[in-house]
Amino acid sequence: MSCRSLRLMSLACVLLLSPLSIADNMIMGRIPLRAEIVLEYVQSSIEEHGYTIAHLQLCDGGMTDFGYKSDLYRVVFFGKIDEVRWISRDYPELVSYLPLKIAVIAEKDETLLTVLNPEALVPFFADEAIQIQLGRWQSDLESIFSDVRRQTASHGTPRS
């Protein structure tokens, strides 16, 4: 996903007032802590859900080129290798959505989290197996966001 696409997602996040929102195509949350701290919780929760973090991408420079001001803009890429291989083999049209990605965007002393809602892709697939997988990913992403919200509520130190 390009930084430009992520910019559009972040602009949608700006309109959020609730801590967790599930729009038709996005899962978004606002955490009242600095992004560096929230990023640690996001990474920890992703791993606790059995995913492997593949890459942490810095997008600050690219976003500045578009006029977007952020102290921190990161994208966490993650997945489960067997799922990625299966999807790549049997559903190559989904490869651009893999690995899964969560954008972590600083806004003053708050952090926006945003990700594509995998269930938004369900109408494009008649196969029950992929519909179930998309639903699992949505459930996991919602759980990750909930974990981060719960863990950061105490303002404690992230687990390693």
| Low-confidence regions | 1-21
**Largest sheet composition:** 6 strands, antiparallel
CATH class: Alpha Beta
Order of helices and strands: HEEHEHEHEEH
Q: How many helical stretches?
A: 5
Spatial order of the strands forming the largest sheet: 1-2-6-5-4-3
Can you say what the CATH homologous superfamily is? TT1751-like domain
Proper CATH architecture = 2-Layer Sandwich
What is the total domain count?
1
What is the CATH topology classification name?
TATA-Binding Protein
- Return Rg in Å: 15 Å
Note the beta-strand portion.
Answer: 15-25%
Shape: globular
Give your account of this protein's structure.
This protein is of the alpha+beta class and 160 residues long. It has a single domain, classed as TT1751-like domain (TATA-Binding Protein, 2-Layer Sandwich). The protein has 5 helices and 6 strands, in the order αββαβαβαββα. Helix 2 packs across helix 5. The chain is globular. The relative contact order is 0.22.
